[in-house]
Specification:
Elements: H1 7-17, E1 32-36, E2 39-42, E3 47-50, H2 53-56, H3 65-77, H4 88-99, E4 109-113, H5 116-131, E5 136-139, H6 148-153, E6 169-172, H7 192-204, E7 211-215, H8 230-240, E8 244-248, E9 273-276, E10 287-291, H9 293-296, H10 312-327, H11 330-351, E11 355-361, E12 364-369, H12 380-392, E13 395-396, E14 398-400, E15 406-409, H13 417-435
Parallel strand pairs: 3-13, 5-6, 5-7, 7-8, 8-9
Antiparallel strand pairs: 1-2, 2-3, 4-10, 9-10, 11-12, 12-15, 14-15
The structure holds 4'-deoxy-4'-aminopyridoxal-5'-phosphate.
Length: about 425
């Protein structure tokens, strides 16, 4: 049993000594003290089904025994040396990652970082050096990080500081079908939003851009899933303007979308660069940017160094995570359980008018709540209430979107069918209770 400080003590110390910028979910924050696979326990011993995975990070299960064993061994042997010396794990992991990219893509060279923000920083820097162009295009409603350059990419006012010294970023319309910026419907829309990128380049840039960066499915933005064909059109436009195409796979990679290992593969495109974090390491502070040799060579233009990037502990955890993804058919599970979940959530939508939209792929699902299906007024306080009541019943989910009205269901990918049923049944009960 847990014998550490009480919740109020933990909270008080945090408030006294840590940055006040730290936010917590829930009116009464959760103190979590133990995890195993898809479950978490609080200080009282209460168990929760974790359907948010530490914000889509714990890909194959909390404290997965096979991963814990390998990391513990490595910690006891050698923890840190930096890349100025040789250690076998970094090359081994780089090789394994390269084997996961489509054949002929040329995506073979990896720069390891400690976070997704850093991975995106490297991608943008390399793209600018390679193309000699300055301007970068990202999508409205995207999230690419909290460092200065990635905050500039991120397109939600809630995540941008007033003083953000933006790098030169232009935001194109988000392929957000449920709230189509043109009020059109797929496929009769003719993918007008994708073609908008051409106008952004024509009217808002010099005509030549360094890069286009996009999440294959927008995560923080609420599982906004671009329609088929979207990326093909955009990649074509961007490449004609001299830019590189960057796929941010921080949330959508490593099998999460079920059908494919990478989110971009669902769209039949091949990016010039892929950035990763979160699910790559099942919770390790680990990020990566993979690209082709001629683009990767740009990092030799000056000395660039990252003290912890590629450290033996993170590399061991990343390698062990990949092994589990394969040994335990994680991607197939994301597909099977994800399909089941989505099917049941769509049934729920028929009975609960609050559910305006159910979207996503595999185990990356968004449920957008609205007060009125016609006006689509965001039901943000209702979403917060659903989260609170779900927590009381032992279910942890996330929320996202600019208005915080989209429930985000992105569990560790070891979720089983009973868990998925518990999840939907719990949401059903909670929505019924809200109606009363
Ligand atoms: N890209 C995406 C798609 C993300 O969701 C996030 C984190 N939410 C990041 C980048 C930034 O990652 P990190 O917090 O590790 O810097």
């Amino acid at each position: 049993a847990y014998d550490g400080p009480s919740k109020s003590e933990v909270l008080a110390v945090r408030q006294q000594y840590l940055t006040p910028g730290l936010i917590t979910y829930y009116r009464d924050p959760l103190l979590l003290v133990e995890g195993h696979m898809q479950y978490l326990w609080d200080e009282t011993g209460k168990r929760y089904l974790d359907a948010f995975a530490g914000i889509v990070t714990v890909s194959v299960g909390h404290c997965h025994p096979a991963i814990v064993k390998k990391v513990q061994e490595q910690v006891g042997k050698l923890q840190h040396v930096t890349t100025i010396y040789l250690h076998p794990t970094i090359g081994e992991f780089g090789k394994k990652l390269a084997e996961h990219f489509p054949k002929g893509s040329g995506l073979t060279q990896t720069y390891f970082t400690n976070s997704g923000s850093e991975a995106n920083e490297i991608a943008i820097l390399s793209a600018r050096e390679f193309t000699g162009n300055q301007e970068v295009i990202s999508l409205r409603n995207c999230y690419h990080g909290g460092t200065q350059a990635t905050m500039a990419l991120t397109a939600h006012s809630t995540w941008k500081f007033k003083t953000n010294p933006t790098i030169n970023v232009k935001n194109a319309l988000a392929p957000y079908c449920y709230r189509c910026p043109y009020g059109l419907e797929y496929p009769s829309c003719g993918l007008k939003c994708a073609k908008d990128v051409e106008n952004v380049i024509k009217y808002e840039t010099s005509g030549q851009v360094a890069a286009f960066i996009a999440e294959s499915i927008q995560g923080v933005g609420g599982a906004v899933t671009p329609p088929p064909g979207y990326f093909e059109i955009v990649y074509d436009i961007v490449r004609k303007a001299g830019g590189l195409c960057i796929a941010d796979e921080v949330q959508s990679g490593f099998g999460r979308t079920g059908d494919r290992f990478w989110g971009f593969e669902n769209y039949g495109v091949t990016p010039d660069m892929v950035t990763m974090a979160k699910g790559i390491g099942n919770g390790a502070p680990l990020g990566a940017c993979t690209t082709r040799p001629e683009i990767a060579a740009m990092m030799k233009n000056r000395i660039h160094f990252n003290t912890y990037g590629g450290n033996p502990i993170s590399m061991t955890q990343g390698l062990a995570t990949l092994e589990v993804i394969h040994n335990e058919n994680i991607q197939q599970n994301a597909k099977t359980i994800g399909d089941h979940l989505k099917h049941r959530l769509l049934e729920l939508q028929e009975r609960h008018p609050l559910i305006g939209d159910v979207r996503g792929m595999g185990l990356m699902i968004g449920v957008e709540l609205v007060r009125d299906r016609k006006s689509k007024e965001p039901a943000n306080t209702e979403a917060a209430d659903v989260m609170e009541k779900a927590k009381e019943r032992g279910l942890i989910i996330g929320k996202g979107g600019l208005f915080g009205n989209t429930l985000r269901i992105k569990p560790p990918m070891c979720l089983n069918k009973d868990d998925a049923d518990f999840l939907v049944d719990t949401l059903d009960e909670v929505l019924l209770e809200l109606k009363r």
